[in-house]
Amino acid sequence: MLLLYHIGKPSLYGSLTCQGIGLDGIPEVTASEGFTVNEINKKSIHISCPKENASSKFLAPYTTFSRIHTKSITCLDISSRGGLGVSSSTDGTMKIWQASNGELRRVLEGHVFDVNCCRFFPSGLVVLSGGMDAQLKIWSAEDASCVVTF
C-alpha cells in the first residue's frame, strides 16, 4: 500500500501490483492511479506522485540476518543511532540485535502468542511492543526487563 500524506490536505492511497518477473530478472510493477513507477531494478524502486510533486526511492536490504528468529518476523525497527535493531516474531519473542552484524544482544519474552509490533523510543534505550495478547509492554533495551505492561 502507498500512502501520501501532507498536513492540511487529504491523504492519497495507492497500491503496487507485480505483473511478474521480466527476462532480465527485474519485477514488472505497475502503480495505481495517481502514482507512477519511475524506475525499478534489482536493488531499488522509485515511485512518484506527479500531482503532488512527491517521490520516494525504496532500497533493498544489502545485508540479511536469517538466524535471528525461527518463525516469521512481524515487525522490525532500527534505533535512532543505527546501532541496534529490534524485531518481533510469530514465535512470541522480540529480539534486540547488533545492526552491523546481526549478533543477538537481548531476548524480550513476556507476550503470550505472537508479538505484532515493536519500536524503539528515540533514546534507543527503551522498546515498546504490542502483541496478540492485547497487551502493550515497555522494555529496557539495556537489560531486557519489562518495565510496565498495559
UniProtKB/TrEMBL annotation:
WD repeats lie at residues 66-107, 108-149. GO terms for cellular component: proteasome complex. The keyword Nucleus does not apply. Keywords: Proteasome, Repeat, WD repeat. SMART domains: WD40 (SM00320). Belongs to the WD repeat PAAF1/RPN14 family. This is Proteasomal ATPase associated factor 1.
